[in-house]
Give the backbone structure.
Amino acid sequence: MIYFFASVGMLILGYFVYGTMIDRLFGADHSRPTPAVRMEDGVDYVRLPTWKIFLIQLLNIAGLGPIYGPILGALYGPVALLWIVFGCIFAGAVHDYFSGMLSVRYDGKSIPDVVGRNLGIGFQQFMRIFSVIVLVLVGVVFFLGPAALLQNMTGLDLKLLIGIIIGYYFLATILPVDKIIGRVYPLFGAVLIFMAVGTIAMLIVKGYEFYPQKTLSNINPQSLPLWPLMFITIACGAISGFHATQAPMMARCLHSERYGRSVFYGAMIAEGIIALIWATLAMSFFDTPEALNKTLAEGGPGLVVKQVATTLLGGAGGILAIIGVVALPITSGDTAFRSARLIIADVFKLSQKENIKRLTVAVPLFAVGFLISLSDFGLIWRYFGWANQTLATVVLWAAAMYLVKENKFHWVATIPAIFMTVVIFTFIANSRIGFNLPMNVATSIGIGAAVVAVVAFFWKARLIQAAPTEASEER
């Protein structure tokens, strides 16, 4: 138990110490008017209370991510906790902070424009295409998945349920952010937190042994490699590129840079704690990794959540499990489509204040999503984990370049960017969905790719530093 509370304590300490350092390094300006103040339009640029922004941001970046990923990661044993804690503090929260605060500095622009301002037009175009594809895939899988779960529980027609969910998504995508998202998300955010805290509390009360397998060795019952697969499997609890697509939505609602640390860095730390809880539950509720793996084989992470919640919390736990497994992915699906709308609108410089212009973007977007749902996109979805971490890696490099442009200590972003570059290239080189190369060869490729990225980064950094006449646009 001491290891669990020590891990939680490290995450909280990371928020107050490292988070404060990142905030000061960035130079959050409390007197600088934010886009929510300067550009308020009553639709996307809407000032919201900080506590509400925090809960919305938590749900935007979370959904089922900090539950399902850590449950699968728990198969590797307690070593997964190290990635959640250190990944969250030094990579994920840094990534989320710069995703949000750079958007604040760039008039609430979406992440492709944030990347483009720092890495150039080539990366901007790449991120525009890549981000929209990822967001639409997330949106589609998160209306098909919950609909199937609801069908199993209610017996209602699948197409009817899909239609209802799509209808909700459409309204959440086009209506002002404070009309649906601003009202519903805080409630679901509270449920997410309560379910996590409640289950871990009852794990203690009922006397379960924390981490029966007390080892940092890889104990995966399927002999899956720890490196680099665990760093792809546990994403939302440590670092996730999907978060970068979501942060600009709340960047448009933040009324003061004073609260950037609590909203962006803080929400990621909160998600890290939730991920830590679910990894702990998965390791401690089941006696062995084999027992956990058996339950996963029978019903996936959803069945694990249901068994843990109902056993530890009783009937109320069953209700919370249903809400968690069904409602939480919906809170990622709707904002995925909303983020895609904002990115497309930014590309074509379309004002989104008028209803007709929002519909002009949203209707074709949902039509594409619906057509994808009719096809077999399972193969494409298998690449999501890699694509997600690739997005995160690019954003970290963009944050590092921003700090270079500002003549500030860039290593807080550069070091995690280098590490994630090795991860994504090693994974795609080794994985069966990639090039299926031997691990030693794949790792060499990953390291080589990181070396190339570092050389390119410092080459561009040198060009920037050699051009003093190009004053920073952000100052």
